[in-house]
Amino acid sequence: MNVETLRWHEGRLELIDQRRLPLEFEYVACEDAVQTAAAIRDMVVRGAPAIGCTAAYGVALDARRHAQAPRAQFDAALDDAFRVLAASRPTAVNLFWAIERMRQCHAQARRGATEAEASALLALAHQIRSDDIEINRAMGRHGAALIADGARIMTHCNAGALATAGHGTALGVIRSARDAGKHISVIANETRPYLQGARLTAWEMVQEQIAVTLATDNMVGYLMQRGRVDIVVVGADRIAANGDTANKIGTYTVAVLAERHRIPFYIAAPLSTIDRAISDGGGIPIEERDAAEVTGFRDMRWAPEGVGVVNPAFDVTPAALITGLITEKGVIERPNAAKIRALFEH
Question: Which pTM was predicted?
Fold first, then answer.
């Protein structure tokens, strides 16, 4: 696709408003860290890598806004930007990874002029964005080797160009397989309750002219039982040190069913999604979102008033259910703590 999930335009950050896809296509402009954090929190932008890139630009926006201020005021503004952005969403570790990189840049540059630091922070945000695209393409190349010609690939949620700076993680693997000349098709689970599969993944695949079939989440077992799924490839929002993986709610169910039907189940994610400070999936914070996402959609309500609602945005798939982890450094079969630790030792 030629569309850009996020772009820097005339001194501001512009994001595709993913809440409106596929019916409408428009960009939302962010001019400071508060607006950027709101865009992350309100799902204008989503997907762990895209959230990380967006947060980096949010810091850069406030640095530019205060570039002419005295050092103490500049530093206070950046501290506020780091705080408000870090509070936007709790599960996607790429958010905190990107903020930490911007913090390190700030620490290294704070003895110099504020204008020079603001330029350095914007340059780093641009670098994080361009690096993400290249990392996704590297993952795509590694993952494409796992895809057989004629494969029917199931994916859950959206881990495509819309969830990254470009190309995508799980959908990047699919794109790369197609670009390698393989004849493939995709089964996109609708991904209740926010319908990222129905609204976003299906839209991306249609734009790419890749054959795609939309399935409701509770059809997964039926399709696998009937032999209509050859491989599963999904993304991730945070991976613990032992390989346990948090992804969109429903992923664990897909993994359990894939194990039952002996279907390979792969996670495609960059190294920045691995949180080595968390030993296992039990330590991954799970975001609980607004009940309105379950009781209806936009202006339509289908659940009765007064009903109780549970709405975790993510679940955790144990490493034991994961066939392999596709990273920019290659494919890690049956990930565990030792294999993941080795990824960072070279």
Answer: 0.93
